[in-house]
């Protein structure tokens, strides 16, 4: 079996700008006309948006990374959700009025923010037809997006892929072949309660991290036997400190987001390593009878606390969003990671891109070895 490398983009809202920095560090070791070195792309939440954007430029790695960097480096909050005073509190007023009405058909999803601007941005920037073309030209084998289905309580993976890749179903997770659209991106990135759920077919979907039990299973089902995972978990300044007071609401909310976005991928990576060790101890003559394969994995994640970085840019937040955060008890000095997920601000995003670039260069020897990058490749 030939090597097939997957790139897995973890979820994390605005933190996904870090992933662009990782790509920016890797792409400089490839010739200008080279396609992406990943046959499978898999993403969740905002990481799913990055994965899909890269899939549309699978035939030219440099162009795809430049496009992603340009978007994140020029991003503003009002391109993701309504951030004006009228937009924020008008939307909350509608949600409150709807909540006071007598029970009846629920025709509008409840959410803290209105992310219709994000739909408009994705409609403008993502050319989904290019994905099929890149698959037909063998620049890409598969692209997948993880979502959480409220009707089935399954983690449903929507994927576009070569014709020989089949649907799958396991315990509380399944893969469904489809033609990806903006709705799939919005569903995968619909952080519960913060952004509205999305109806696809007859079911309702939200952020893929919510019901995600095995985030590495999707690329493996799509044929990958090597995985690079960009995990957006970051070290926390207070994780080694003992607190003398009860955690506040904003701290608990931030902890919940950290758990949703990071714990499952960490657990899955541990499971993968245990399987690899088990397989290594089984004599080769017996391995074919076991439905498990050795999967090489490399993880790249932030070396600095992303919440601390976000706090430096708290002053850039629009006044309506700042008021809403303060009503929740969140300030620039709060011990909460919420802002680091919702601060879609170009200066904050640029800081994360720089960190992703620097972190990747710090382990570039491992990356080059994993991707089999050598001097001959650069000279082509």
Could you characterize the architecture of this molecule?
The protein is 44% helix and 13% strand. With 380 residues, it is α/β, with parallel strands linked by helices. Helix 1 (17-27) packs across helix 14 and helix 5 (116-125) packs across helix 7 (182-188). The longest helix has 32 residues, at 249-280.
Alpha-carbon Rg, integer? 21 Å
Strand percentage lies at: 5-15%
The total of beta strands comes to 10
Summarize model confidence as the mean pLDDT.
Answer: 86
The largest sheet, given as strand count, sense and whether it forms a barrel, is: 10 strands, mixed
N to C succession of SSEs? EHEHHHHHEEEEHEEHEHHEHHHHHH
Secondary structure: helix percent: 40-55%
> N- to C-terminal separation?
26 Å
User: By helix and strand content, what is the structural category?
Assistant: alpha/beta
Pick out the low-confidence regions.
Answer: none
Number of helices: 16
- How would you sum up the global shape? globular
What is the topological layout?
Elements: E1 5-9, H1 17-27, E2 40-44, H2 46-56, H3 61-73, H4 85-100, H5 116-125, H6 129-136, E3 142-149, E4 155-161, E5 168-170, E6 173-177, H7 182-188, E7 198-200, E8 203-207, H8 217-221, E9 226-230, H9 249-280, H10 284-287, E10 296-300, H11 306-312, H12 319-327, H13 338-342, H14 346-362, H15 364-370, H16 375-379
Parallel strand pairs: 1-2, 1-9, 2-3, 4-6, 9-10
Antiparallel strand pairs: 3-4, 3-8, 5-6, 7-8
Helix pairs in contact: 1-3, 1-14, 2-3, 4-12, 5-7
